[in-house]
Amino acid sequence: MTNERCSSENLSSDKSREVIEKLGIGFHKLNNKFVNILEENQKINRQYKNLEEKIQQILHTNSELSEKYQEILRTNSELNEKNQEILRINSNLIEENNEASRINSELRKQIQERDKQFEDLQKHVSNLEKQRNDELQQLQQLEIVTQTLEKNLEIMKCDEIDENIIKVLKENNDDFSSNFLKSLEKDTEESMPSFNIKVVVGLDFGVTYSGFAYCHVQTIQNVCSNVNWHGEVGQIKTNTALLYDNGYNNLLRWGAPALAEKLKHRKIKLEESRPIELFKLYLSDSSDKLKPKLPIGCKKAITDYFKEIGKVIKETITTRWPTIYYFEDVLLVVTIPSEFSGKSKAIMRSCAYNAELIKEERSTNLQFITEPKAAAMYCVTNLENRVQPMVIPQSNSSVMIIDCGGSIVNLTTLKLMDNIKKFGEITKEAKDFCGSTFVDAEFIQYLRSVLGDEPIDLLKDKHYKQMQYLIQHFCEYGKIPFTGDDPDFLYELDIQYTIPILKQYINDDEIRETLEESDWIIEIDFKTMKSIFDPVIEKILHLIKSQLDNTNETCSAMFLVGGFCESKYLQERVKKEFGHRVIVPAQPIAAISRGAVIYELSKRVICTRIAKYTYGIGSYVDWNKGIDPFIRRTPDGKIYKFMTLVKRGTVIKCGETFSFNFKLESNQSSASFTIYYTSNHNPVFCDEPEMKQLGIYDLDLPDVHSDNRIVKFGLTFNQYEVTAFAMNELNGRTYKTQYRN
To answer: Which residues does UniProt call coiled coil (predicted)?
Structure first.
């Protein structure tokens, strides 16, 4: 038992120790946890203190911000007060500006009234001068009557009247009638409307493009085309286009700026209004389907366009010749299609008057000329000034004017009269819509094949002016440079640079991916560009062929004019098809406006000139003893003297000829004429001090075996040239040489 108890106690003691050990271990763990908790608590206390400090800082900062906010509120209040003061000052300034505008308007009215009074005064003075001249002419007529009556009275005092006296009376009456009729003719000529034109302006008002040329009547060989449009120099024409505000009440822009605009930013920019184009078609006999729908009347559009281009005309003339008075000294020649009716011309005249291009609606300072006739006039004149050999059309032959414009291609066959600068009736006409803008349309059609219809439709509907800028870019860097003879030709269209707005309308993933791979650049090579041109050019060639087939007479020359004819590719295609007959003048785009000026100048140029010199030739004649100096006698009994053809001071009509017949000696195979001129009225010898040589004219005479050969030699005087000619009257062969003098 004792052992069992001892064992039991030992067992109990072991369990107690084990429990105590476990309790010790648990206490140790709890103690560690407690220590950790205390440390964590200290850490939290420190963080709390830090937070309290930060809260204090935030509260302090908030207090400072509140003070600053109050300061801002006070400053804002002061600014509001100052803004109100500025608004009051601005209102006062607007009122003062309105008052100044009103005063300025009144001053302009007063100036206009004074100008009108001055014009009326000028007219009154002119009428007084005319009345004085009329009275002087009447007095002269009365003097003629009085003198004749006095002569007759003196004769009647004689006691006898024989046949001689009757004859004298008749002669007196004849002299009276002659002088009286001459005075009446002079009176009639001077009473005709004054037409002291100093400058001629030719206005080519086209369907798609317009431009003008001008020239002073004293410098008829210096016809100029205007190349200054909207502050930029270089283009001969500008677009026939207008841009108004939304209500179409105020004109914002005209010409090229009205049509095209490059988008400077990539965000969408909505159009204020769509440009108005092709309004001239309303004056033609074209189908209504081809005429655009206009938001305003065509008369208003034409008037507004005339008014703007008229400002450029007046400014150009005033800058060039400051003393020119536009309404009195300038003749405006407007070109029109040959099919224009009298009604269309009346509308254009009315629009020109309303646009202040002419002073009165019936003013003779506005004339019309058909476009084909103006173009033909320019082309023929241009031919005469060429140095290289050309096919020059002869009198009574037919020529074709191929006017390739922006929208329409007009073909007109004209008959040349005896004078090749005079044109007869139009024998055949044809036209079609296949101008240069149809190449632009083919380009847009190609873009549709690359980008799809939707992007192009959206661009056209929402950004029409940016689309026109795209077309202008194509014209400048693609259409115009294309000649058709460079297989390496390449036109690159950079969409991101040229027309960035187009990118947002390209939604097709495959198309976008392709464009992104090419950096948004579309390349148009030689073959593609040719395919863009050819449908339009084929239509033009077919039109020309039909015109030739339908014309009974042979066409001796074909003139290419109009803006589209600036295209080298079009020129080469037409030349290749129709050969040497095709002639391209120096500036085909300006042919019509320049031709209008040349035509009127040819009618109004001074038709007479006064010879400033005595003209003649050196001639060997028989020496006359007692008359001619012995020292000048040649061994064969001749003397070299000056033979006068025209004396200084002679009134010469333009184109007038002075000539003499020269009989050739037997077996004479050549002749030489030395032409002289001098300021001396009665020269005798060719070596006098003031004598000058104009030129030497050598002539070959091959028909030496013929008898009684006569050569007619002479000088023909034009406005600025002297033409020497010699005609072999045996065979009719004529030789000419021009000299400027």
So the answer is: 34-159
Q: ∠ at Cα 520 (519, 523), nearest 5°?
A: 100
Pairing of strands 251-254, 423-432: unpaired
Q: Which residues does 337 contact at the CB level (< 8 Å), separation at least 6?
A: 284, 370, 371, 410
DSSP 8-state assignment for residue 139:
H
Which of 484-490's residues contact partners 24+ apart within 8 Å by CB, and which partners? Answer: 484/530, 484/533, 484/568, 484/569, 484/572, 484/573, 485/572, 486/526, 487/526, 488/526, 489/525, 489/526, 489/529, 490/523, 490/524, 490/525, 490/526
Residues contacting residue 86 through CB under 8 Å, at least 6 positions apart:
none
**Block residue for tokens 């105020």:** 250
How far apart (Å, rounded) are the C-alpha atoms in residues 242 and 669?
A: 70
- The model carries a pTM of 0.57
The rounded average pLDDT for each run of 10 residues, N- to C-terminus, in the chain (741 residues) is: 60 75 81 85 87 87 85 85 83 77 71 63 56 56 55 49 45 45 36 61 95 90 92 90 90 89 51 81 85 92 96 95 91 91 90 94 89 88 55 67 90 70 63 92 94 92 89 92 93 92 91 91 94 95 89 83 92 92 90 93 64 88 89 90 89 81 78 88 90 85 71 79 80 74 57
- Residue 556 CA neighbour count, 13 Å, CB half: 14
**Residue reference for tokens 């194509």:** 474
* Burial class of residue 444 (count of CB atoms within 10 Å of its CB; 0-12, 13-18, 19+): middle
Tokens of 533: 């041109």
- Beta bridge pairs of residue 641: 619
d(CA 741, CA 721): 6
**Both tokens of residue 403?**
């006017």
Measured between alpha carbons, how far is 643 from 691 in angstroms, rounded to an integer? 13
State the Cα–Cα distance between residues 280 and 210, nearest whole angstrom.
11
How many Å apart are CA 459 and CA 66, to the nearest integer? 54
* Ramachandran area for residue 721 (φ above 0: left; ψ -120 to 50: alpha; else beta): beta
Q: Where in 607-682 does DSSP place strands (E)?
A: 608-610, 614-622, 638-646, 651-653, 656-663, 670-678
Q: How far from the centroid of its chain's Cα atoms is residue 181's Cα?
A: 49
Q: How far is 467 from 207, CA to CA, in rounded Å?
A: 20
Tokens 């003649």 appear where?
A: 616
Structure tokens at 607: 């038709």
Site of tokens 């100096």: 629
Distance CA 738, CA 741 (A): 10
Q: How far apart are CA 381 and CA 385, in angstroms?
A: 7
Q: How high is the pLDDT of residue 185?
A: 36
d(CA 496, CA 728): 73
d(CA 34, CA 32): 5
AA identity, residue 468: Q
